[in-house]
Amino acid sequence: MVTSCILPCMTAPPRSVLSPVRLGPLELPNCVVMAPMSRRRAAAGGLATPLMATYYAQRASAGLIITEATWISPQGAGSEGAPGIHTDAHARAWRQVTSAVHARGGRIFLQLWHAGRATHPALLPGGGSPVAPSALAPAGTIATPLGRQPFVVPHALEVEEIRAVVGEFARAARLAREADFDGIELHAGQGYLIDQFLRDGANRRTDAYGGPAEHRVRFLLEVTHAACEVWGEGRVGVQLSPTSPLNDMADSDPAATFGHAAEALNRFGLGYLQVFEPLDQTVSAPPITPSLRSRFRGVLIANGSYNKEAADGAVASGAADLVAFGRAFIANPDLPERLASGAPLAEPDRGTFYGGDARGYTDYPRHGGA
Question: What is the per-residue pLDDT across 321-352, written as a single tens digit (0 to 9) for each?
């Protein structure tokens, strides 16, 4: 005789952005990621400061912190006040940040960045030329010590020079390990060097690094391979921004370009793929994040104007594994706690986003005024 279970069916509650999650070898207490955000408060020479250590440690309850964009060589700097990671002194300076975050129980990845053509001679050693896959200047202007200046025509990298830049990423990855980070993220979005190779609006090369998508993805794959050689599986992330127009970027077929990139990245055992694509963007094409979710087999971080309801929906549905929050973390150092309690979120002071001192940086109180 067959009997049926008369006990009520016990199902697990749906996952939310506050659920714990595994990221490579790391156990994260929640799915709330502090997105990389430039704040431009590094000391002369791009050295991290005690103030930066305080800022990141205040936000250690995030499941994962991803630092601001950090230049991997003097040639890669794209703004005043941005930090660097290409000397032993940089590693020592960053160690005060990682120590402060770890003392609060947090986890922190360093974002590695090369601005490529999205910089200016006034920001480079000796007034040198920016570099890029092709000698195409982006439209627009950039903030420099001389005021806002038009972008200039960059130097198109020779193949040997490309290999040298890959080596600079590898060196920066090693220094990040020495600085005791938990991992690194490769900034392959927002119109910077790796993104410039990926998108055909900036890459007009006819060699092995240009032309079809499988060639344009080559530089990203070489940099990712070099980073994973240093860090191993689960400790390297990549950020893509397939539809962002920042720094005059465009691609004739972003779905195909970035779909190919996402599939190619599967070979590395990445910690995650972060996709920046705002929910409220106004573009004629449909969003690309869902197709990247289906083509990338690892952890996906969604980034782009999410509130708690949208973040919970993305995690519960499987559209994303984690969700990155940017500006909300500026004014709410205890953001995960506020999301958990339903406390109101403070609004950041836009006038203090970039540069300056503690005002608008480390003086935002926790909920309740502590």
Answer: 999 999 999 999 999 999 999 999 999 999 99
CATH of the domain at 40: 3.20.20.70
Residue 261, pLDDT above cutoff 80: yes
The catalytic position among 55, 56, 192, 272 is 192
For the chain, how many helices (H) and strands (E)?
11, 14
The answer to the question of residue 172 being in a domain is yes
Distance CA 349, CA 353 (A): 7
The answer to whether position 9 is within a domain reads no
Residue pLDDT, tens place only, 234-250:
999 999 999 999 999 99
Assess if residue 188 is contained within a domain.
Answer: yes
Helix axes 218-231 and 254-265, enclosed angle (nearest 10) = 30
- Our answer to whether residue 192 is catalytic in this structure is yes
Between strands 272-276 and 300-303, the pairing is parallel
Contact 270, 237 (CB under 8 A): yes
